[in-house]
Amino acid sequence: MKCSEAVTIVNQLGLHARAATKLAQLCQQFTAKIELVQEDKTADASSVLALLMLASSKGKTLQVCTEGDDAEQALSAVVDLISNGFDET
């Protein structure tokens, strides 16, 4: 199963190291493949380094793409975390 949804970075610091670590740890709990796409860049969401390479700042829109057995749950959890400002706001 493939799932996809757009979400906007809302926290002040964007996808910085602490937020990327929190997101990667969340993604590692799922068996689904989870990728974030920003413009022409794609990152494996379970890799902190890959997430940081996106250089996502506040206001940027990311496409969250999930594929696998628990894709819907993974998509929902990732979108919630990003929408809630990585629980920082």
UniProtKB/TrEMBL annotation:
InterPro entries: HPr (IPR050399), HPr-like (IPR000032), HPr-like_sf (IPR035895), PTS_HPr_His_P_site (IPR001020). Its main location: cytoplasm. Pfam families: PTS-HPr. Residues 2-89 form the HPr domain. SUPFAM superfamilies: HPr-like. It is found in: Cytoplasm. Keywords: Cytoplasm, Phosphotransferase system. Belongs to the HPr family. This is HPr family phosphocarrier protein. The lineage of its organism: Bacteria, Pseudomonadati, Pseudomonadota, Gammaproteobacteria, Chromatiales.
